[in-house]
Amino acid sequence: MSGSGTGTALVLGGGGPVGGAWLTGVLAGLADAGIDLHRADVVIGTSAGAVFGSRLACGQPPGELYERQLAGDDRIDLHVTTAQTLRFLRAALGSRDPERSVRRLGRAALAASTAPASEMYDAVRTLLCGATDWPARALRISAVDAVSGEVKAFDADTKAGLVDAVAASCAVPLVWPPVALDGRRWIDGGSRSTANIQLARGYDRVLAVVPIPNAVGPHPGARQQAADLAAGGTVVSLVCPGRTDRRAMGRDMTANTRVPAAARAGYARATALAAGVADAWHD
Prior knowledge:
The protein is of the alpha/beta class. It is 43% helix and 13% strand. Strands 1, 2, 3, 4, 5, 6, 7 and 8 form an eight-stranded mixed beta sheet that branches. Helix 4 (82-92) packs antiparallel against helix 5 and helix 6 (117-128) packs across helix 7. It is globular.
């Protein structure tokens, strides 16, 4: 692309319960600073970003997303054992080649004994807060083919329902089972990119909110993906956690005790960056 794209894209990355809380804080902080997130022509969500992107696209205000994190209303108990973590790391880091790395992770996910699919779907439905149908607003949800490693963006024009698409995007390898859609098996959309900013190619303005800038394994990070789009003429605003945010979030992205602090840190981060984001986001 050479600056000839049209429209705006809001890209929301993954990061588990804690990263998701930080993300809602950023969204609320930007909205309270006068940045109109609803002007986005498309919302692109990955993993936790798929959950909150869906709720945002379905009409839930950013401030309500944030307040629910502070109140603990979106609590989800995601149990990840040390053994699961080690198997994940062995698979993802077993090759320096990005394609081989993601296929190794996919094979491990397909072979793993995980929590039942019903548990995953119950959690996803709870997190979606009643949003079960694709909204009128353009929404794209990323997932990764467990066999080929291909990234796909599901939307209202695909055969997948919204709950299925979000479940696929949240199917953490070795923790939750791959989701069967369109005759294929899908794992977490963040398996090779935590935000999939590349899916916004073709838009002339992109706002990317990314709780975890780098995926595990030899994959391009959010900053590299943002730079690639910017090199083609896209105006990109990338919001990632700073040092203070990372201290508030801690190391365990599943720790519910960290959720309120992470949300507040995201809000503060957005407040500090709002002027720069507004210049890039608004015409």
